[in-house]
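Researcher: Please predict.
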Amino acid sequence: MEIKEILEKFQKNKISIEEAEKSLKNNNYEDLGYAKVDHNRKERSGNSEVIFCRNY
């Protein structure tokens, strides 16, 4: 769920503040099945996300 969608649901009282907070905290990662991409890593740590892929 996108941040705007979470905030709109909260504004319309479709979700609680606790649900909105949980959704926003979980919104930083995208689970691709083989990797969890941290989209906000650069903003939090100053370093971009890197995915290591070993070539066998």
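Model: The two ends are 35 Å apart (CA to CA).
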